[in-house]
UniProtKB/TrEMBL annotation:
The lineage of its organism: Eukaryota, Metazoa, Chordata, Craniata, Vertebrata. InterPro entries: MITRAC7/Phoenixin (IPR027917). Pfam families: MITRAC7_Phoenixin (PF15061). It comes from the Eukaryota. It comes from Silurus meridionalis. This is Small integral membrane protein 20. GO terms for cellular component: mitochondrial inner membrane. One of its GO terms (biological process) is mitochondrial respiratory chain complex IV assembly.
Length: 68
């Protein structure tokens, strides 16, 4: 019985460590999109994307934006 508890604690600790590592990478930006959009707006203020984009690479628009 104690052997199962140790196994569950080890795997539970591993899952907790992975979740803690993924939170700032994936979940925080996903839940705070407006903050990141404001930061990008400030950082990209004077940049023309066509000047810095390599030749022949298509410039993608927002995939979630409805097409007009």
């Amino acid at each position: 019985m104690a052997n199962r508890r140790v196994t569950v604690l080890i795997f539970g600790g591993f899952v907790t460590a992975v979740a803690a590592a993924f939170y700032p990478i994936f979940f925080h930006p996903l839940t705070h999109t407006n903050d990141y959009k404001q930061i990008q707006k400030v950082n990209r203020a004077g940049i023309n994307q066509a000047d810095v984009q390599p030749v022949g690479v298509k410039i993608w628009s927002d995939p979630f934006k409805p097409k007009s």
